[in-house]
Design goal:
heterodimer; A: alpha+beta; Naphthalene 1,2-dioxygenase Alpha Subunit, Chain A, domain 1; Rieske Iron-sulfur Protein; 2 domains; seven-stranded antiparallel sheet; four-stranded antiparallel sheet; 10 helices; globular; B: alpha+beta; Nuclear Transport Factor 2, Chain: A; six-stranded mixed sheet; 3 helices
Chain lengths: 425, 168
């Protein structure tokens, strides 16, 4: 791997080697050097509210039990029995005081302690149940309700890792009067036949908006949403920038034209939704002041937390995480996030707005998926003859980089390359 | 004597089946405007998230939860060749069976039917959507019309089906 450049970063040219999307060896390396070295999103504390609440999911390739323990802490356990290895919990969600492995009947309490062993007296005297609790990842930490794990015991603390991304997570949470957001039930769980890094790029690449999403823009226009380029320097219907945030995290930060459940009404929501949006707006202004309220409501931001978490605070808020199944296939899971105290009317507007754009049945995401699959199909068998993808937009500019430039995409790739080069195996 | 409103009191299962088979043919042939004409003015089209098949879209994230305005927007989009996920258009084939009338009120029939929808894309790609339709049908404009249409997928997750970018 060390004999070929993965990324070419020159003064006025930035290129990505297409082998990074195709080569199974690179995927094996990135599992260890990227995913096992970084903080990876597990879930949100609101998904496991009461002691014993659990969700099982695959995180960083491992089956885990994400749960609330007897003392009220969010915990993560590797979902494999300490006896012979079977998945202890095979339900996707629920509440349990005890998790019993059905194979030989070993059972574990909510805190992961081994509780029951059938025929315990037949083990040698040295056998102690306290040695066989469910294993935990080396590190589990959370930031404002977002729970992450890390398989590197020596990793920096999560808050340090998040660096400039924290400010953008805070902006999402400021939607809630109590500072508590919650994951809304209903999971979008689907595969894309493309390399996972293509979805990183796509998730905050605004350059593709006009061509990939022209039918979505038409849908908004037909509904009466006004959009006009601020001036000739802008490709897109509003001003927006791309911003690296450290450690490979980056975001777009755009003046909103597409509407926001918090709290910018557009005709797509219908007249009936107007009073509710105005009520949310006045609460926001009363609580945060005009300037901060406008920051929360009148900008939209797609934040990538390196390497595989998107917080898109746009037409609605979505948490989206994804993981490679193969070099040319990823599994995506996405949820909607909303203020915990949201009224039923506001919640309905939020979910409806979500589906105008996002998800496998939305009016925009399917075209993103098609774009990614078209890229994968295009490069899979040609990457030797056509080895480089170009990512140089904005490189000659000084100062602010637009959301249609590629500085924020380059920030992701540079961090990825750094980890791939220097990583421990 | 009062004129009896056109109702569904005597609609037979055979008539319902014929209607659903006709709808399936229109969708397989991408005759989307004719399909739109089968809907009532307040119709809804829904595909729930796979992990919440019985939920309410006002409080649960769905895959699709369209009112009639969004259905019209979706059709406008699908007829545009810039709806890239469906250009070139998928070929689909719908098999509808186990049609049952499960409820009947003054003006409305509740109907359920099983479906298998095959969706073919380039390079041999075939994706199979298996599940159950739940319809609310009304008699309007001289025939049955769809007031509500929910496609409930059986799979635990959308998974390798990937998208619901066509009318399921």
């Amino acid at each position: 791997m060390n004999d070929r450049p993965l990324v070419l970063n020159e003064a006025d040219s930035f290129r990505v080697n297409r082998a990074t999307m195709v080569d199974p060896e690179i995927l094996e390396l990135e599992r260890r050097r990227v995913f096992d070295a970084c903080w990876i999103y597990v879930g949100h504390e609101s998904e496991v509210r009461a002691p014993g609440d659990f969700r099982t999911r695959t995180v960083c390739g491992r089956p885990v039990i994400f749960c609330r323990d007897s003392k009220g802490a969010a915990r993560v356990f590797l979902n494999t029995c300490r006896h012979r290895g079977a998945m202890v919990c095979r339900e996707t969600e629920g509440n349990a005081r005890i998790h019993t492995c059905f194979y030989h009947g070993w059972s574990y309490d909510r805190d992961g302690r081994l509780d029951g062993v059938p025929g315990e007296k037949d083990y040698p005297p040295s056998f102690r149940k306290s040695d066989f609790g469910l294993m935990e990842p080396p590190r589990v930490e959370s930031y404002r309700g977002f729970v992450f794990l890390c398989f590197d015991p020596g990793a920096v603390p999560l808050v340090e890792y998040l660096a400039g991304a924290k400010e953008y997570i805070d902006l999402v949470i400021d939607q809630s009067p109590s500072g508590q957001m919650e994951v809304i039930q209903g999971t979008q769980d689907y595969e894309i036949r493309a390399n996972w890094k293509l979805l990183v790029e796509n998730s905050f690449d605004d350059y593709h908006l006009l061509t990939t999403h022209s039918t979505w823009l038409d849908y908004l226009k037909n509904a009466g949403v006004k959009m006009q380029r601020p001036d000739r320097d802008h490709l897109l219907p509003s001003h927006g920038v791309g911003k690296p945030l450290g450690n490979g995290h980056a975001t777009t930060d755009n003046v909103n034209f597409r509407g926001r459940p918090v709290a910018k009404w557009i005709p797509v929501y219908g007249e009936a939704a107007k009073p509710e949006i105005e009520r949310i707006r006045s609460e926001l202004v009363a609580r945060l002041g005009e300037a901060r309220a406008a920051r929360v409501a009148d900008t939209n931001r797609n934040l990538i937390v390196f390497p595989n978490l998107l917080l898109a605070d746009g037409s609605s808020v979505t948490i989206r995480t994804f993981y490679p199944v193969a070099p040319d296939r990823m599994r995506v899971r996405a949820w909607a996030l909303g203020p915990r105290e949201e009224t039923p009317a506001a919640r309905a507007i939020r979910l409806d707005a979500f589906l105008t754009f996002y998800g496998p049945g939305g009016l925009a995401t399917p075209d993103d998926v098609e774009a990614l699959e078209a890229v994968q199909a295009g490069i899979a068998a040609t990457y030797r003859e056509v080895p480089w993808s170009v990512m140089s937009r904005g490189m000659a500019k000084t100062g602010e980089q637009l959301n249609s430039d590629e500085l924020h995409l380059r920030a992701f790739w540079l961090q990825w390359e750094k980890l791939m080069r220097a990583g421990r195996d | 004597m009062k004129k009896r409103p056109a109702g569904v009191a005597r609609t037979t299962r055979a008539q319902v089946e014929e209607f659903l088979f006709h709808e399936a043919a229109l969708l397989d042939e991408w005759r989307l405007d004719e399909w739109l004409a089968l809907l009532t003015g307040d119709a809804r089209y829904e595909v729930p998230s796979n992990d919440r098949p019985d939920a309410d879209p006002a409080s649960t994230l769905f895959t699709i939860a369209d009112d009639i305005e969004r259905i019209r927007g979706r059709i406008t989009r699908l007829k545009d060749k810039n709806a890239h996920a469906e250009f070139p258009r998928s070929r689909t084939r719908r098999l509808i069976s186990n049609v049952r009338v499960v409820g009947r009120s003054a003006g409305e029939l509740r109907v359920e039917a099983n479906f298998v929808v095959y969706r073919f894309r380039r390079d041999g790609s075939v994706r199979e959507y298996v599940g159950r339709y739940r319809y609310e049908l009304r008699a309007e404009r001289g025939g049955l019309r769809i007031a509500r249409r929910r496609a409930v997928l059986d799979a635990m997750e959308l998974g390798s089906m990937g998208l619901v970018s066509f009318i399921l």
